[in-house]
Amino acid sequence: MASVDLCLDRVSDSADAHPRPGDRAHDVGVTAMDWYLQWIGCAFGVLGAWLLALNNARSGWGFVAFLASNVCWILFGILTNAPGLIFMQVAFTATSLLGIYRWMLAKPRDFRARKSGE
Q: What is the tens place of the pLDDT at every residue in 5-64?
């Protein structure tokens, strides 16, 4: 129980619960690079989701935004020693590359005509 109390003391002594660039938050080692990577990765991820949700001619760019997000999160995972995050983002990178291929690089196909002909 003493270790929990010590941990809570460290959190309550902190002047600011949210790290800023250059600050160290609660002794977890958040650096300015970590801070920027996580927020840039977050912004690209949200942008990608919005672009895909529009479901228009520009929606394929959502996968490009996801790919940028994947790169940021992989770097963040490496810097913060988060193997689960790295593995997940590598898998998401594969889906981003597949999306880029299918939406932007592959020749358009008429899937409706093929389905009705079956």
A: 444 444 444 445 555 555 544 445 678 999 999 999 999 999 999 999 999 999 999 999
d(CA 64, CA 58): 11
Structure tokens at 104: 């932007």
Reduced to 3 states (helix: H, G, I; strand: E, B; else coil), residue 69 is helix
Cβ-count burial of 48 within 10 angstroms (0-12 exposed, 13-18 middle, 19+ buried)? buried
Residues 83, 53: contact at Cβ < 8 Å?
no
CA distance 104 to 111: 16
The domain limits of the chain are 64-106
**CA 44 from centre of chain:** 7
pTM value? 0.68
- Which of 56, 46, 45 is CA-nearest to residue 92? 45
